[in-house]
Amino acid sequence: MNDQAQRDQALDVTQSYIVQAPAGSGKTELLTQRYLKLLTTCSEPENIIAMTFTNKAVDELTERVLSALQSIDQPRPEEIHKQVTYDLAQAVMARSDERNWQVLNNPKRLKISTIDGLSSLISSRYPSKTQLVPRQIMAAQWQRNQAYKQAAMQTLLLVDDPQHSKAIAHLLLYLDNNVEKFYRLVIHMLSKRDQWLMRLYRGEALDADVLKNSAQKIVIQHLSHLEQVAKLHLDQSFFELMTSSADSEQAQVDKLPGHQLTDLAKWQAIESLCLNKKGLWRKKLDKNCGYPVELKAQKNALMEHLQVLSTQDSLRELLHQVTQLPALDFSKIQADTLTVIAQVLKLCVAQLSLHFEQKQAHDFIEVALNANQALDDRSSVSDIAFF
Asked: What is the CA radius of gyration of the chain?
């Protein structure tokens, strides 16, 4: 397959792209080319920032860029994809000479970094008033988990505090006073607090609308995926048989449901018909499934469908996950419990901050949160922050 047209398109730096390709297909070279193309358009190399996840990837991309820039004194390569890199590197060096960048003498001007590295850079350039000395990073997972558990333990000690005792006691009762489960859940939530801390609250209180909107997005996204997979395996004859069910909810499903919130109940009916309580394809149907003895012909025909479907693990998993989707509406009891959980989680975050202060250390999430705060506190951050 010749994908040169797509590669050329990805070098249009006026547009944004997601590149998906298997290992060994040349993604890193394409990223190198796009980075070089961006360098030809900027006034200073620091204006272009490339971010990746690991230090190994940073080293590889940096080495690729520098090797390309150093190769312009050599003959132009014969391979087409290498010619593109070669020509872009020549354009970058011409830009460097024009602007006196001296990138080969000052490779640090090429801003290729991990996401955590960029966050650390911003935080160090704009420290808070209470944090003038850079803190140590908790790089090991066990260190972070230990910090999260310590925060959970300190939060639990506040059960005797008049201001917080009611919320903590409520949550413990909800967890059947299982302290280890409390620790486990808090550790999990603190390890992902960048995903909820800045979104979950309106001022000091839980923003229920955020939870509802998030739940709706999750449901629609899952049903969209399920619809695309199900249409390959569930034909109209399957739904004609469903309409004969003695179960009123199943009988209402006369065609493949869509992916709107109103379609959720129909997908739930399909799931209850096709899968048992363990999430496996049913091997038999009876009156409990909506097919009593008087519907023997329809039952046998449906069993033939289920027999064919028995090898479709992807569809089975997606159907089973319908039972695990978040609720779209909260009862008063659920709303009260969520409010309590939100209160206790804020206490845990506060205790974690105290622990970080005591140890003069923090995790990668804290670095990212501090960087976001630094950017939020300033209407603009000059490029000198990235030098």
From this structure: 28
The whole-number mean pLDDT for each consecutive block of 10 residues of the chain, a chain of 387 residues, reads 81 89 86 93 91 87 92 89 91 92 90 79 64 74 94 94 93 94 96 87 78 92 96 94 92 94 95 94 91 90 93 95 90 88 93 90 83 62 47
Phi first, then psi, for residue 379 (nearest 5°) are -65, -30
Of 180, 117, 176, residue with least CA distance to 149: 180
* Tokens encoding 370: 């501090």
114, two tokens: 């991990």
Q: Exposure pattern of 332-354 as b/e (b: 16+ CB <10 Å)?
A: eeeeebebbbbbbbbbbbebbee
pTM over 0.70: no
User: Residue 309: how many CB atoms within 10 A of its CB?
Assistant: 19
DSSP secondary structure of 226-295:
HHHHHTTT--HHHHHHHTT-SSHHHHT--S---SSGGGHHHHHHHHHHHB-TTSSB-S---GGGT--GGG
Q: Which residues face 281 on adjacent strands?
A: 275
Distance CA 221, CA 235 (A): 22
Residues in Cβ contact with 373 at an 8 Å cutoff, skipping those fewer than 6 apart: 128
Q: Which residue has the tokens 């639990």?
A: 156
Which whole-number Å values give the CA distances from 215 to 102, 205, 238, in the listed order? Answer: 52, 19, 30
- The Cα 154–Cα 144 span in angstroms is 15
User: CA nearest 204: which of 367, 19, 350?
Assistant: 350
